[in-house]
Design goal:
By secondary structure, the chain is of the alpha/beta class. It has 9 helices and 7 strands, in the order E-H-E-H-H-H-E-H-E-H-E-E-H-H-E-H. The longest helix has 15 residues. It is globular and about 45 Å long. The protein starts with a strand and ends in a 5-residue tail after the last helix. Bound molecules: BIS(adenosine)-5'-pentaphosphate. Keywords: ATP-binding, Cytoplasm, Kinase, Metal-binding, Nucleotide biosynthesis, Nucleotide-binding, Transferase, Zinc.
């Protein structure tokens, strides 16, 4: 089962990807997480990506495609994967289609988490992340047991650089201009599944579960 989680910044892609990993046992491929790991490691790729990410822009298609190609070919992706934050441009979507064709695979579902803009700003301003294990939280909607501390590994939680209000506005604009046209791209290919992403985390988990359990493996 090969799934794309699609939606604007803060729609809940990472949150729901964690759920799908646990529920369906397929790995999450998050280009944002891979890029943040490269930034943390101060690799040449990370150094090139950092200022673009901090400003809320998109890293070059070439860099992102290189990361995805390598990751998707690993053995744990053999029986399926969840793409989170990729593709984000039409060239990325075209390259993914060619890549999968070469591997004898295809996308089964593109799940679009449809969330109102005001809700997105609330979610991103309250997001906190564990820098050690990557687990995500929200100060009000998905709070850790002890404020500011990761439930899973006990590390101090941090706020992402790109979650500052002015950067969030830029990320939303980049999404509108460069990523939202992909809705039409996937609609035309019969792959798009819309989910109302404004509900609680548990509501959305239920909707995703029904969709994936009911349709796993069926290609429209
Ligand atoms: P990336 O990390 O992919 O960021 P994003 O797409 O902007 O998505 P987010 O991680 O901000 O949000 P999310 O949808 O995962 O929401 P989350 O689950 O955390 O990319 C970062 C940057 O990397 C990009 O700006 C770009 O520079 C670069 N990049 C990455 N991929 C690229 C690509 N393909 N091409 C080029 N550049 C690329 O939820 C948000 C918050 O809301 C959390 O606090 C969560 O607890 C809370 N929450 C979630 N669901 C709910 C709910 N139902 N109710 C209440 N709260 C909720």
């Amino acid at each position: 089962m090969n799934v794309i989680l699609f939606g604007p910044p803060g729609a809940g892609k990472g949150t729901q990807a964690q759920f799908i990993v646990e529920r369906f046992g397929i790995p999450q491929i998050s280009t944002g997480d891979m890029l943040r790991a490269a930034v943390k490691a101060q690799s040449p790729l990370g150094v090139a990506a950092k200022s673009i990410m901090d400003a809320g822009g998109l890293v070059s298609d070439e860099i992102v495609l290189g990361l995805v190609k390598e990751r998707i070919s690993e053995p744990d992706c053999r029986d399926g994967f969840i793409l989170d934050g990729f593709p984000r441009t039409t060239p990325q979507a075209d390259a993914l289609t060619s890549l999968l064709k070469g591997l004898g695979k295809h996308i089964d579902h593109v799940i679009s988490l449809d969330v109102d803009s005001a809700e997105i700003v609330q979610r991103l301003s309250g997001r906190r992340t564990c820098p050690a294990c990557g687990k995500g939280y929200h100060v009000a909607y998905d709070a850790p047991k002890v404020a500011g501390i990761c439930d899973a590994c006990g590390s101090a939680l941090v706020q992402r650089n790109d979650d500052r209000v002015e950067t969030v506005q830029n990320r939303l604009e980049v999404y509108r201009q460069q990523t939202s046209p992909l809705k039409e791209y996937f609609e035309q290919r019969g792959l798009m599944r819309h989910i109302d992403g404004n509900g609680t985390i548990q509501d959305i988990q239920g909707q995703i579960c029904s969709l994936l359990k009911g349709n796993a493996g069926d290609r429209p």
